[in-house]
Specification:
The structure is a single chain. The chain has 3 helices and 23 strands. The chain has about 270 residues and is mainly beta. The strands form 5 sheets. Strands 1, 2, 14, 15, 16, 17, 20, 21 and 23 form a 9-stranded mixed β-sheet that branches. Strands 5, 9, 10, 11, 12 and 13 form a 6-stranded antiparallel β-sheet that branches. The protein is globular.
Length: about 270
Amino acid sequence: MHLTGIFIYPIKSLGGISLTESTVQREGLQFDRRWMLLDATGQFLTQRKLPEMALLQPAIKGDRLRVTHRNGHSGMLEFFLDQTEDSPAFPVRVWDDEVAARSVGGDADEWFSQALRTPCQLVRIEENAMRYDLKSKGGKYVSFADGHPFLIVGEASLEDLNRRLDTPLPMNRFRPNLVFSGGQPFEEDTWANFTIGSVHFKNVKPCIRCTVPTIDQQTGKVAGAEPLRTLATFRKVGNEVKFGMNVALPETQGEAIIRLGDEIAGG
């Protein structure tokens, strides 16, 4: 088995960036979901509420993050990846977690508000910030991702699903960070731990799927009931449809680099 896909989503719920290599950090892949959009009430925005967020495409250009609209609207937004905001830190919520963030400011809020036709504020997570679960009071290192630092899906798992669908779907419907070739369908479900090259990972839990996989990532529109309808026929546990595995780093694993082609070994 080998690593065939590395993807980051710098701004939560916007388009992804395909990489040939990436730095693995405890919060997730470098630059993955380090920024997030808030609405006028301070709630985080995702494609669940605004499917057209898929049309906003980030790209890393040297030391800057550039965002454009797939349909050419609103021009371009660009800011430094390591930009240090001088605004005060304040708490933002991701589901039941709270974490410190700062407003990016500048032209960002106006640009996103125009592009999405709704008031927006772009925030960046504080460096080395820990997210605190407001229910359990526990803390964890993770970016603005829904709950865990990484998501892995096997190509064989998607192929198995696509054989059951009338119209095959691309991997981007599931927005993984890590994709691999080889192995059996849903083999990733069976691992407690695995390695990519010399980097150690641990499986946390299956990924519970919301409505985002029904959104065409090229058009920013809900394309119908698939793949959730078909997944529910063979990947439903209770009321939850599961596809892919949420992943974290063991405490003993430090920062490291992974590359396309690296061998994957599960166990």
